[in-house]
Give the backbone structure.
Amino acid sequence: MRLKPGALLRFYSLCGILVQVAATKNKARGSQGQFPLTQNVTVVEGGTANLTCRVDQNDNTSLQWSNPAQQTLYFDDKKALRDNRIELVRASWHELSISVSDVSLSDEGQYTCSLFTMPVKTSKAFLTVLGVPEKPQITGFTSPVMEGERMQLTCKTSGSKPAADIRWFKNDKEVKDVKYLKEEDANRKTFTVSSTLDFLADRNDDGAVISCRVDHESLNSTPQIAMQVLEIHYTPLVKIISSNSWPEEGQSIILTCESKGKPVPEPVLWTKDGGELPDPERMVVNGRVLSISFLNKTDNGTYRCEAKNPIGRNSTEYVLIVHDVFNTLLPTTVIPSLTTATVTTTVALTTSTTTSATAISTRDPNALAGQTGPDHALIGGIVAVVVFVTLCSIILLGRYLARHKGTYLTNEAKGAEDAPDADTAIINAEGSQVNAEEKKEYFI
């Protein structure tokens, strides 16, 4: 079939319209998958911020970065704002990245990435600028400080954003009871932070290190620290140390006076019972040491050690008691008691007892080893034997005299029993006395 020229023209026009509609739909469908992607950025003041905008699908559509004031920074690869701090990092159909160096607090805000489709699509990225806190300073510190005085130390830092945190330490041990104050700076962007430590000066704090530490996220886990070393002045602390816990007569003793203070105490002063030392020849003072030789009972008393420095003075006492020398008791020699015996037996027993006493004294287990003096046990035994022999002799002599007198009176009485008169009785008594002497016995 043959078409007319007018119909053919209308056919081509209809086909062109259909192709154009299809192309428009495809373009609209493709633009629906195009969307810019950005991320928020945090940077320390003075650092460099990198802003990146990406598009997964792009049909040669332009990208643009603009600042919080809606000023265009870059349009594709073309720089629009004259700022030497802003540089192009990368420009393509799928990415537009720029950098801002030497960032200041005024650069903080919301930046916009625009994709020029129909309609224009945008994505926001917020730039956060951290204010770095200044190095902290401690005020209110004086040196030296007297013991008991109140100290107020203040640690202060400015320029932090957000507000910094301040912590106190004493010899690496954190102090919790502190006051904290935060104030906004004149630029209404940064803060000034201060903290106050309040305490009473104590001698135990002398030489302690007081530190103020500032923590902030801009410091990258490296805090800023300010330190002060305390110097506390205090009166001396005195103590006496003895070298002998049980002093006896004839021994020696050393008393040491330990004094600790700041400033260092002057040489100590030793006294006895409130006065000077009574015997300088035996009582020798050498610095802080008092030495007493050849102790005796007169050394008993209260000894005082006194130390002083410009802050004050202090003292302590030591009571000295000299004890008697401890003696080792010697064993007592026991002599057995005797009843009756003849004179011959008594001598034999005496000899035996002397030997026994000597043996006992020789075997004395408590005798001092290496003794060079006389044997007191042997001498005591000999004296005891002599006394015993003497007593026995006296007793024998007394009994003998008493027995002899009794025998004479008895014989005389016996002669008088059969005699008619006194003369006969005397004669009879003399005969009986001769016979009686032969029968005498001796009793002890």
Remarks:
- Residues 376-418 form the longest helix (43 residues).
- The CA atoms of residues 66 and 72 lie 4 Å apart.
